[in-house]
Design goal:
Elements (H helix, E strand, L loop, with lengths): L5 E2 L17 H12 L8 E2 L6 H4 L5 H9 L4 H7 L5 H24 L1 E4 L20 H11 L6 E5 L6 H6 L6 E8 L12 E5 L5 H19 L3 E5 L17 H17 L4 E4 L8 H20 L2
Parallel strand pairs: 1-2, 1-3, 3-8, 4-5, 4-7, 5-6, 7-8
Helix pairs in contact: 1-10, 5-6, 8-9, 9-10
Length: 304
């Protein structure tokens, strides 16, 4: 596997108030860094199509989808999302879903593919939450199942926050297994029930984290035998993250990405990766941390 498909979103710059802790420019800057450091080449890049609203409604209620897209969501529901509505943000959100769908299909074809965005795991069927509007992971999973491309999916969510929306969406779906390893005392305050939840103590560092992951990941793969793995590689597990309460280093995050990707790929399971959460005042450092996923994926692709 020498080719590493990377899905990029050319219109990923949506205006937000100055100083907002979720800067949209990070998606564009991530792609630029990957090219600059020759992690990827222009030939590796794929641009997604805008999915129709019916595709988003495979997971979300038509009322919620239509209201958000039209900008008519009630103020309380909008505040719960945590991002001010704009036409640009609505478009970015919708194309992000297309990006994860494309990433999944490229992973099935090539064995491994990475998104430069995605991981909006706090979005529930009828409302958004925690900076998440539409659940791209869940929608992409439903698309693959509906098109009979796969029969069994494993979602590995290593964002520092529990994938609560994803857990609820698939709580009664035997075709999708949800695994969330997250900080126990972080958002959301009310946890949902994934198929497997591993709640970590505040302040956990690299070695303990990676050993905990190693205690579960190989057995999950051999038991579930998924047709594809969706990997949410949130970097809000970093010790300097504004919204995280774990203490991973850059090296620890890179080791984590190598552990997940090499374990899955070497066992023959395709992996579709999304970048998940990451929040920091130092945007340059944050973008580098997100790039660790793609750097590890390049390494795994070269030697697979």
């Amino acid at each position: 596997m020498k080719h590493l498909p990377v899905v990029y979103h050319p219109d990923y710059v949506a205006p937000l108030p100055p100083g907002h802790r979720f800067p949209m420019s990070k998606f564009r800057l991530l792609q630029e860094l990957l090219l600059l450091d020759r992690v990827i080449t222009p030939e590796d890049i794929y641009a997604p199509e805008l999915p129709d609203l019916a595709t988003i409604e495979l997971v979300h209620s038509p009322e919620y989808v239509q209201d958000y897209w039209a900008g008519t969501l009630d103020p309380k529901a909008q505040r719960r999302i945590g991002l001010p509505w704009s036409k640009a943000l609505a478009g970015r959100t919708r194309i992000a879903v297309g990006g994860t769908i494309l990433t999944a299909k490229l992973a099935l074809k090539h064995g491994l593919a990475c998104n430069t965005a995605g991981g909006t795991h706090h979005a529930f069927p009828s409302y958004g939450s925690g900076f998440c509007i539409f659940n791209d992971l869940a929608i992409a999973a439903r698309v693959l199942l509906q098109e009979n491309l796969v029969k069994k999916i494993l979602i590995i969510d290593l964002d520092v926050h529990q994938g609560d929306g994803t857990a609820v969406i698939f709580q009664d779906d035997p075709n999708v297994f949800t695994f969330s390893m997250h900080c126990a005392i972080n958002f959301p305050s009310t946890k949902q029930k994934s198929d497997l939840d591993i709640a970590l103590p505040e302040g956990m560092e690299d070695d303990a984290y990676l050993q905990t992951l190693a205690n579960y990941l190989p057995d999950l793969l051999s038991t579930i035998k998924p047709d594809i793995v969706f990997y949410d590689a949130g970097v809000d597990t970093h010790h300097s993250d504004k919204l995280g309460k774990l203490c991973l280093t850059d090296t620890g995050i890179y080791r984590r990405e190598m552990q997940v990707l090499s374990t899955c790929v070497q066992a023959g399971y395709p992996v579709a990766c999304v970048i998940g959460g990451g929040y920091a005042d130092d945007l340059k450092s944050l973008i580098y941390r997100h790039s660790l996923l793609h750097r590890a994926a390049r390494e795994v692709a070269l030697f697979s």
